[in-house]
Automatic annotation (TrEMBL):
This is t-SNARE coiled-coil homology domain-containing protein. The keyword Membrane applies. It is found in: Membrane. InterPro entries: Syntaxin/epimorphin_CS, T_SNARE_dom. The chain crosses the membrane at residues 77-97. It comes from the Eukaryota. It is a single-pass membrane protein. Residues 5-67 form the T-SNARE coiled-coil homology domain. The lineage of its organism: Eukaryota, Haptista, Haptophyta, Prymnesiophyceae, Prymnesiales. Residues 43-70 form a coiled coil. It comes from Chrysochromulina tobinii. GO terms for biological process: intracellular protein transport. One of its GO terms (molecular function) is SNAP receptor activity. GO terms for cellular component: membrane.
Amino acid sequence: MQQHAGLLQEQDDALDTLEGGIKRIKALGKVMETELKEQAVILESLDEDIDKADSNMQSLQKKMGAMIEDAKSSDRALWGIIAFLTLLLGFLTMMVFS
């Protein structure tokens, strides 16, 4: 009978150890969940910024296409394109450094 009680005590100790490990894993899982939720918010914001930048870039490409067509026929348009490209370079440089 005492041998049986000792065996049960060993099993209880093993289960207590296992329970502690499971609790630590659960806590780690909650920390990971929180981190992933925060990163999801950051990625959504980044996605919105990329969409805006893409939209702006497409708009600029259309304007540049129109300016190039105009430049084929006039020097004034050519200087306008040079000024525009200089401004665009300044804007993009500013975005890179900010």
